[in-house]
Give the backbone structure.
Amino acid sequence: MKYLKEEQRIIVGKKVKIKICETPKDGRFLAKALPLKTIIISKNLKNYLGKRSYWHVLLHERAHLESINLVRFLPYFMMVLLFFLNFQELVSSILDFKWPIVFLIKIVVLILIEPFFIWGSEILADRFAVKNSKKSDYEATLIRVYDDPRYLGNRSWFYRNIYHPPKKIRFWFIKRF
Ligand SMILES: [Zn+2]
């Protein structure tokens, strides 16, 4: 990925590296947190946001740099754990030329529930941003981002409704923080 600009900023007590990248080919907005202290923002998103809403996006991504991010990866940790715990059973079923059915079912269940962990990490990141900002301002930013076709426009139905919490769900929680 090509970076156009890089800056350091203290966000809620943490020194964070912010990298501005080229607008993706399909024109969508991009904002993501990379472990352990980097936030990537696409040029089109930065240009679209005002100073205040840019700060809100940084706050949200900043939350993903914290342990909140572990929530997202919990199913993967569980898969690894499952693998080691079931290792003997796995090996013996393979040696007996049998399918390790129980093991596979456990993996499938983890894959099916994975989006809910992602929802959890998104909602916790919203909570973090709201706690460190003004709720109505943060909501305004979220609406501004969601309402632009460059945010969700070309993403699949699956991504918008299953893999990522829909706007309604996020606002339902934000109202209660
Ligand atoms: Zn997020």
